[in-house]
Predict the 3D structure of the following.
Amino acid sequence: MNLARASSDEDPYVWLWALGSLALYALLSYALAYRTRARRGSAHPAHDALHDLKDREDPQPPEHRFVSRVIMLGGAGLTGLVALSTSGVARVLAVGLTAVVAVTAWAYYDHRTQGRASARR
């Protein structure tokens, strides 16, 4: 019965951090797509940006996908190291800031490479 429970050393909110990171990635991706549509003079930038995110049918080229995953895993690793090296209120602030910077870099890279791939078509 003891195996079914999480150990007392683990943060019970790890899944909330992970879901928050994914939600932040989706929000940043939408914001970047919206900004691009608005700059291009779209009549309905919010609607078009939502469809841009939904219509990503073509996968990234292998080299872009690899770099995207390195950014994602590097950010996760860095966030984990910050979490292990701090405690208390400083931990929450440091982990939050590190996660926001890492997810922003990941979303921005994916947005920039997505734009270049669609421009080549």
Remarks:
- The chain has a mean pLDDT of 80.
- Residues 25 and 97 are 14 Å apart (CA to CA).
